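lol ok so funny story. i was supposed to be doing the assay writeup but got distracted and ended up predicting the structure for this chain instead. priorities right. anyway since i did it might as well share w the group, maybe its usefull for someone
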Amino acid sequence: MHYHLIGICGTAMASLAGMLQARGHKVTGSDENVYPPMSTMLESLGIPVMQGYDAAHLNPTPDCVIVGNAIPRGNPEVEETLNRRLLYRSQAETVKEEFIRGRRSLVVAGTHGKTTTTSIAAWVMAQGGLDPSFLVGGVVQNFDASFRVTKSDYLIIEGDEYDTAYFDKGPKFMHYLPELAIVGNIEFDHADIYKDLDAVKTAFRRLMNLVPGNGRLIVGWDSPHVREVVAEMGEKLYTRLETFGTSDDATWQARDIDYSGEMARFRVFREGREWAEFETPLIGDFNIRNCLGVIIAADAWGIGSESIHEALRTFKSVRRRMQVRGIEREVTVIDDFAHHPTAVRETLLALRTKYKDRRVVAVFEPRSWSSRLAVFQEDYATAFQTADYVVIASVFDSGKATEKGRVLDTNKLIEDISAQGKPALQIEGADEIVRHLAPQLRAGDVVAIMSNGGFGGIHEKLLQALREKQE
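and the output, tada:
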């Protein structure tokens, strides 16, 4: 078949494009936001990406048009698809029918940590001999890919709670037919599509209700809202429940977490009895919890603790998750996808753990819908507490964000952060931030750049400015 993907450079869409091509289909696509790592991945696969949206991109006529979830009515290619009565589907529906139905699926969900946890699961299951297919919303460095298509019965997929398409406003993860589901945590997010926390909890309750009786629901017990959703389901939970975390009442517990060496070490207890000891290059308690959820899933699929140990020890993380983009003049530049205040806080805490005696400079771009709106105004004020120096970029496309509600007040945010006794500045965009920051940086500094978008190529621009300063 010839599939044409509108919005092909989205993380899930680009991965789906590669999966469809691996199945022997012809794949084309279009997008107006073309930047790495997905654009370079598509280029390496030889999948043509047409810049911008135009009805002419549907000539020759594709057999099926896949509409990305960020693509609205009014898009020229959507309108052409409807006018010509072409077959169209969402990304999630296509994944379900092409790759999941009839197979054994692990769906990784939660407000935070989905991409990393899915990536850990893909590596652990592969090292355990299951040879799984996978689809992840980021590039898994162990595979140097965001997807894999195999002939095995196992598939691992990141379960996004964001809506599916303009014609399907339910969460993507409702399409993924989980045998196993990991729900690591639940918080309010995606303020553009969820009215409040209760609406988010309802979505996750529906996911939990999809897990079959012979499957497993694996939930993060350190998350109060996960506990609430499970309690609300009560006897309507028709599957086996596994709880995990650092809490004393979790079925699976991580204890004695030690970050003092090159590897983070922790011991796992199951129902109060020591089960095994593990080590990982990942840092931060949230990443230990991510590992723990995968350990339970791997055990459910019959993988032994020794294989799990070796896989966790050799896991290389995901691009754009505390990824060191370069070191110049002894300044370490880190790229991270954090955009929710909890993710920002946890990322900075983890970096503080790793770089104990070094200055941590936080650079944040409010780019996701939730971060652009004022819904987390107070939470962001406390999210940067462990940073030593803070730079906040202007709200991305603030005019469009205004249509959704009150926009994040970055001036107030800077005032609140400055009141904590640390330098904090608002600077317009990537170029201005680099011009200001490069002369201020000194040997030993760690610059954590946090955005869920391209951020004007700030990482390479900053590294280049540091190189030029050195010369």
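The chain has a mean pLDDT of 93. The chain has three domains: 2-89, 102-313, 323-470.
back to the writeup now i swear
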